[in-house]
Every structure is written in structure tokens, then in C-alpha cells.
Amino acid sequence: MTREEVVDFARKYDPQPFHLSDEAAAKTHFGRLAASGWHTCAMTMAVIVRHLLKDEQAGLGSPGVDELRWLKPVHPGDRLTVRGMVVDKTPSRSKPHIGTIRTRTIVSNQDGVDVMSFTSIVMMLRRPEGSA
Amino acid sequence: MTREEVVDFARKYDPQPFHLSDEAAAKTHFGRLAASGWHTCAMTMAVIVRHLLKDEQAGLGSPGVDELRWLKPVHPGDRLTVRGMVVDKTPSRSKPHIGTIRTRTIVSNQDGVDVMSFTSIVMMLRRPEGSA
Questions:
Q1: What residues of chain B lie within 8 A of the CB of A18, using their CB?
Q2: Given an 8 Å threshold on Cβ–Cβ distance, is A42 in contact with B42?
Q3: Looking at the complex, does the CB of residue A64 fall below 8 Å from at least one CB of chain B?
Q4: What is the Cα–Cα distance from B93 to B86, expressed in whole angstroms?
Q5: Do B15 and A50 touch (CB under 8 A)?
Q6: Which of B13, B16, B42 is opposite residue A59, by nearest beta carbon?
Q7: pLDDT number for residue A125
Q8: B7 touches chain A (CB under 8 A)
Q9: Chain B residue with minimal CA distance to A116?
Q10: ipTM attached to this prediction
Q11: Cα within 13 Å of Cα(B1), Cβ side
């Protein structure tokens, strides 16, 4: 996360004072400039999608997200790591080539502190029967 | 939502094919170019924050969001309306000047169709006792 990115995103989408300047953030529990939680979501999505595309995985979009939690502030200079795991998978009853997975995503910073987590529902193309 | 905004956001944060071009989206259930759900979240936040700032409401940040649902695709040219209601409020036990509200947000398009909904948890400054 760079300072410029944090402020650019906030100006456009989330212009609360603590997302715009250190001075305003110092008056709040954030202490110093903190990224919009929606910015952290967007950055996390960028990592996930680039990983999916690289692996030629076939995401078909998502009906939604549960238990999105902004656990700790994200500050300029933080280096975030995204971990994801599939927690369950359900083949579609009506469309055998499609399934739904639920994934748990955890984002942590350079100190190993979790800053965000969520569970998402993702529709995926299934591998043809018998393929590797 | 303009086409340029949809594609700009997707290039940066969610470069799945159906968020980048009508041609790719035509091969999916989206049918035509659809905005990233995270883009709809960010645009909704922009509306909410500008409303909060106008009314001098004192949001202190959010611990998270529940039941975020992307109900229908959002397409370029769509005009979105944001409705929000407070569903409950809880004063802080330890800090009497702070409270937590839960709000339900529903975003609908120009046809009155709900395209997104979520429940968010927001920390707020409370009015001093006895003030209007």
C-alpha cells in the first residue's frame, strides 16, 4: 500500500478524514493515515484474480461475501499477504458443469498481523469428469 | 456507472474478463459488461460518506460487513440509488461517547431492481446527553 494509492482511493470512494491525512487520522483511534477497508478489499481482489487467471481457473462471479472483518488498520507502507482456502464446494444440482465454492480469505501485514478476513461464495466452472 | 469507470476499476482491481469487455461477458451469464461487485461497493461507499459528511455525522470507521450480496449485475449506464436504514444501535459499555450501529444498505438500479445489499457495523460518536 502506498500513500498515494491510499489517498487516491479515499478521495474517490471513501473520503472520511482518517483515510485522507495523517493529521486527521491522529485524532482518531487509527493514529495515522489508514486505508479504506474497501480499498483493502479491492487490493485483495486484485491479488486473487491475478492468481486465478495465472492458474486458468474459471471463476464465474460471486453472489456475495460473508463476515467481512476489518481487523486492524492498514497503513501506507504496509506489505500485505493474501491467504485463501476453500472451505467447501457444492456442485450445482441443475447445471453439472458449474459448482459453488466457499473460500476463506485472510489478509495479513508484514508483521504477521491479520488485518482483514472474509468468506466468499464463488461460482466456478467444474473440470470435465475424469480430467486431471 | 459509466463504461470507462467500470473498465478502469476492473483493470486495476478485478480484471476478470466479464468486467473488461462486452465480448467476454457475452459468453457468461452476465450477458454484457458488468461492474466488479467491489466497484459497486466502492461507489456505494462514496454515496454514503458524502451523505455522512454533509450531515456532519461522526463515523469512526467500521469493524466489518455481513451478508454482502451481489444480487444482480450492474451494467454501464445503470443509475444506482442507495437506501440505508439503521437496524440497531448499541452504546459502548466502556466509552460513553461512542456507540455502534448496524445499518442495512440496499442498492437498486433505475428499474427499481435491487442489485446489492449488505449489513454493516459502524462505530459512531454519540450526541452529548441532552443535545438535540
A1: 61
A2: yes
A3: yes
A4: 20
A5: yes
A6: B16
A7: 85
A8: no
A9: B64
A10: 0.90
A11: 32
For the stretch B52-57, contacts whose Cβ atoms lie closer than 8 Å and that sit 24 or more positions apart, written own/partner, are: B52/A16, B53/A15, B53/A16, B57/B124
Query: What is residue A99's predicted lDDT score, i.e. its pLDDT?
Result: 93
User: Where does residue B128 fall: left (phi above 0), alpha (psi -120 to 50 degrees), or beta otherwise?
Assistant: beta
CB contacts < 8 A (A, B):
99
Judge whether A98 and A32 are in contact, CB under 8 Å.
Answer: no
Interchain proximity B61–A18, CB inside 8 Å: yes
Helix, strand, coil percentages, rounded to 5, for chain A:
30, 30, 40
Q: What is the pLDDT of residues B11-62, one digit of tens each?
A: 999 999 999 999 999 998 899 999 999 999 999 999 999 887 666 667 888 9
Percent residues over pLDDT 90 in chain A: 77
Q: What is the mean pLDDT of residues A28-40?
A: 95
Using the Cβ of B115 and the Cβ atoms of chain A, whether some distance falls under 8 Å is answered with no
The residue type at B90: T
Summarize pLDDT for B63-96 with one digit per residue, the tens.
999 999 999 999 999 999 999 999 999 999 998 8
Does residue A132 have a pLDDT over 90?
A: no
For residues B68 and A64, is the Cβ–Cβ distance under 8 A? Answer: yes
**What residues in B contact A72, CB-CB < 8 Å?**
none
